[in-house]
Amino acid sequence: MPFFQSSFFKNFFSKKQLPSAEELLFGEDKKRLLFLFKKMGNQALEALKDTMEALQKRDVERAREILKGDDNIDQMEANLERESLYAIALRRPVQENLRFLISLIKAAGDLERTGDQVANVAERIIALGVKPLAKPLEDIPTMGSLALKMLEYAIESFEKEDAALALEVSAMDDQVDELYERVFTHVLALVSRRQPTAQEELGDCMSLVLIARHLERVADQAVNIARRSYFMRTGTSMNEKKQKPPSMEDEGCIAPEKRFYKRNLS
């Protein structure tokens, strides 16, 4: 049998074995877009890490530098979105490739909002200054560490298309929510017990609550990125826990602020 009629020859040169020119070009686009996403993710991670260090060291000047860097993350998000839309228009991707681009655009938006939340924490550090705090930081550094780990895992799950790691990020979110509620409850209990008359002292207490709230939102953005990763890899939404929807009177439906007043001030 002539070689060109052999099964090896047919399989080697079949369309199934050789990617099209468009697939090859999109592969290069994908590599570049993932490079830009990783660069943006590293910028957000570094900003969050620096912010938590500035908070613990009460470093106001460092917080001001972090605020200036927020514009870089905004510009990265704009560039990534523009190049993703360019790839959609030029390559006309379908199925997995289109799912990748849509997920990437949304994940870049989540990273940009993460940068905004980190900048908000930096603003609170500046507002607190270097004077003694009304209460120790206690759970806030732990919240920051968890949020940092969640963001790192979420970015990694997107880069590697790791659905299992995305689920792990989602499972970690409850710990951050519990810590936020604890910080809020402790601060409100402190305020109600001491009845601070100085506006500055009350402002410091509110700054601590807001820092915890911003860190909780960073964790939420990490979960959003994980959800994009899971959808990109599987084509389905991340499974939610199957349970009966709680009523509005259940504890789970009441925000930490309202739970505190219900338990302590009613």
What does this structure look like?
Helices cover 78% and strands 0% of the residues. The protein has 266 residues and is mainly α. It has one domain (20-264): Up-down Bundle (Methane Monooxygenase Hydroxylase, Chain G, domain 1). Helix 2 (21-57) packs parallel to helix 4 (95-128). It is elongated. It starts with 6 loop residues before the first helix and ends with a helix. 32% of the residues are buried. Mean pLDDT is 82; it is low at 241-254 and 260-266.
- SSE pattern, N- to C-terminal: HHHHHHHH
Q: Can you tell me the residue ranges where pLDDT is under 50 for at least 5 consecutive residues?
A: 241-254, 260-266
The CATH class, by name, is: Mainly Alpha
Provide the residue-averaged pLDDT.
82
CATH topology call: Methane Monooxygenase Hydroxylase, Chain G, domain 1
Q: How many domains in all?
A: 1
Number of helices: 8
Give short descriptive properties of this protein:
266 residues; mainly alpha; Methane Monooxygenase Hydroxylase, Chain G, domain 1; disordered C terminus
Outline of the structure:
This protein has 8 helices and no strands. It has helices spanning 7-12, 21-57, 60-91, 95-128, 139-160, 163-194, 199-234, 256-264. The chain is elongated.
Which helices and strands occur, and which strands form pairs?
Elements: H1 7-12, H2 21-57, H3 60-91, H4 95-128, H5 139-160, H6 163-194, H7 199-234, H8 256-264
Helix pairs in contact: 2-3, 2-4, 2-5, 3-4, 4-7, 5-6, 5-7, 6-7
